[in-house]
Amino acid sequence: MARPKKIKEQQEEVTQNRIMEWYMNYVLENGREPGTVYKFAKDHEISESDFYNFFGSFEGLKMAIWERFFEHTLKVMQKSPEYAAFNPREKMLSLYFTFFEMLTANRSYVLFTLKHEGSMFKNAGQLRALRRELKAYATQLIREGNEEARARLVKRSESIFSEAAWIQLVFLLKFWMNDNSPQFESTDLAIEKSVNTAFDLYENTPLERALDFGKFLWKEKMS
């Protein structure tokens, strides 16, 4: 009679975060994804229904992990007393620097899951939630910038800016994955130059930043 009580007590402890932690540990320790939800649940002494209370599949679980990375990034940024006074450019820089610090803390998992997916543009369904969250954040930033614009002619397109932000993040992800510099210093430079270039393009002063960014990319490619 004690066994059912023990299972019930353990089930009450099951959370979305715990399941994500179990999954990440599994792929890191085994070098592959779990074969089935049934086996994964059994290994952690929970029922399949416990898993499905939070995720519809492993694909949904992976999407949630990326979404959680982004949500935690926003929480860390917004705790900073200086954040509220940042302009849109500074907020985007802060977002990327903080986000890649988060990824670096989980680098082994990120490298495994992205390399396993192949092309981040074509096959990475797990990034769909991240894409949605990033585009929403970028849209918010451009709205802030537009509110500060004095003339209608200098207002920027929210849809173009948000899509450009996503393409930029994919570029930075690929760059970071291949970055062998100490403490990923080259990625920090890529973030700074790419963000400054993007905002300068919208502020109609692109030439100097674009040339500087192009030189940086050429140097990194040839080194």
TrEMBL record:
Gene3D superfamilies: Tetracycline Repressor, domain 2. InterPro entries: Homeodomain-like_sf, Tet_transcr_reg_TetR-rel_C_sf, TetR_C_23. It holds the Pfam family TetR_C_23. SUPFAM superfamilies: Homeodomain-like, Tetracyclin repressor-like, C-terminal domain. Residues 91-217 form the Tetracyclin repressor-like C-terminal domain. This is TetR/AcrR family transcriptional regulator.
